[in-house]
Amino acid sequence: MKKSLPDLIIGIVLLAFLTSLAVQVPAIPDVSRGYPVFLLAVSYLMSIWLVISSMLKLKTQEKQETQVAEQMKIIVPYCLMITIYLFLMNKIGYIASTVVFMIVSLLYLKLKNKVVMIVLSIVMTIVLYFVFTNFLTVILPRGTWFNIAF
């Protein structure tokens, strides 16, 4: 993989993101539309420059070996776990889904000590629950299948 390929990918993703923002500009009132349009224009120019410069570098660089395949074997399953966690959060609630997610994550990351894994998962979930609900006054999902909440 060449060094400038990630820059090219990021530039293309940024252009797609900026386009999704540009579609929403007509909904902004005329009085306050100037600054977002200016930021979009500057961001478009910088992203186009990134894409063009990385394409030019891509032609002149030699290929380098990377560990993308090995990293993808770790990242893709973990992203899938996060997606399942987010789905389950609305179904079984924040507390149960977070405890399960943390235990599965620690197993996936090959933590050996099972007691530490379970205690850490439960304690961190409860601490985060109280911080979010009492100090930040955020309402966390309670779940529709069953409810575990304080």
Number of helices: 5
User: Regions with pLDDT < 50 over 5+ consecutive residues?
Assistant: none
Bulk shape: flat
Q: Which class best fits the helix and strand makeup? A: mainly alpha
Summarize model confidence as the mean pLDDT.
86
Distance, first to last CA: 51 Å
Q: Roughly what fraction of the amino acids lie in strands?
A: under 5%
| String of helices and strands | HHHHH
The largest pleated sheet is described as:
none
Query: Portion of residues in helices?
Result: over 70%
Count of the separate structural domains: 2
Radius of gyration: 22 Å
Q: What is the total tally of β strands? A: 0
Structure description:
This protein is an all-alpha fold and about 150 residues long. It has two domains: about 5-60; about 70-135, no CATH class. The protein is about 70% helix and about 0% strand. The protein has five helices and no strands. It has helices at about 5-20, 35-60, 70-90, 95-110, 115-135. α3 packs antiparallel against α4 and α4 runs antiparallel to α5 (about 115-135). The radius of gyration is 22 Å and the shape is flat. The N and C termini lie far apart (about 50 Å).
Topology:
Layout: H1 5-22, H2 34-60, H3 68-92, H4 94-108, H5 114-135
Helix pairs in contact: 1-2, 3-4, 4-5
List keywords for this structure.
150 residues; 5 helices; 0% strand; mainly alpha; 71% helix; 2 domains
In a nutshell, what does this entry contain?
The protein is an all-alpha fold.
